[in-house]
Amino acid sequence: MRLENKVAIITGAGSGIGKETSLLFAKEGAKVIVADINEKNGMDTVEEIRGAGGNGFFVKLDVSSREQTKQMVKDTLEKYGRVDILIANAGIVQDALLIKMTEEQWDRVINVNLKGAFNCIQAVADVMMNQGNGVIINASSIVGLYGNIGQTNYSAAKAGLIGMTKTLAKELGRKGVRVNAIAPGFIMTPMVGGVPEKVLEMMKEKTPLRRLGMPRDVANAYLFLASDEAEFINGAVLSVDGGLVI
Q1: Mind telling me the catalytic residues?
Q2: May I ask the CATH class of domain 7-240?
Q3: What percent of the residues of the chain are helix, what percent strand, and what percent coil, each to the nearest 5?
Q4: pTM
Q5: In angstroms, rounded to a whole number, what is the distance separating the alpha carbons of residues 177 and 3?
Q6: How many beta carbons lie within 10 A of that of residue 220, not counting itself?
Q7: What is the mean pLDDT of residues 20-46?
Q8: 95 burial level (CB within 10 Å; 0-12, 13-18, 19+)
């Protein structure tokens, strides 16, 4: 198993990509901390992990709260004694054209998608540096690389994650901690569940592989970057988009 006995914190783990990643990591031998603001979804993920013979427990978490992220790491250390992997996956969308975007929409997306990752990383950084090893993977997006109409807040947050990833790869790499990011394209998750069918078809047509991504596609990318197979990859942004932006 590729993550045997590793301790992995996964945020936004109650649904979509985060849930799929939690199930895959547990299958590969990791002890998974399922962190999500939605208690029911998070507990459902844990039940699936345990039902398949894996090891996981749920932590209710609002990543925008510094105190909650610190407590999550404290609870993890009390239970397992270490943190090997952080998948900063939690994210939300509140789309609007620039001239119609409210301050609340801007603040909420930045607080969850960008500040939330910062909070979680800062909470685990000392632990990983003291261990002399660790892996941090941030969930960016193709819109963080190329932008998207109606997503000023989301694009800014995801672009910010790329800058943070590269900076922290330099800062923490000296202590044995690798920091990378993934940039998914259009993935069939609850986040895109409300997108009209004709728009989904347009997305497929624009993608050279002629399909939308599935949560498992991104989970597999997380698994590779978290594993020892990627032990010399640091500061990278891995696109998982079916060739959409080549």
Answers
A1: 154
A2: alpha beta
A3: 50, 15, 30
A4: 0.96
A5: 16
A6: 15
A7: 98
A8: middle
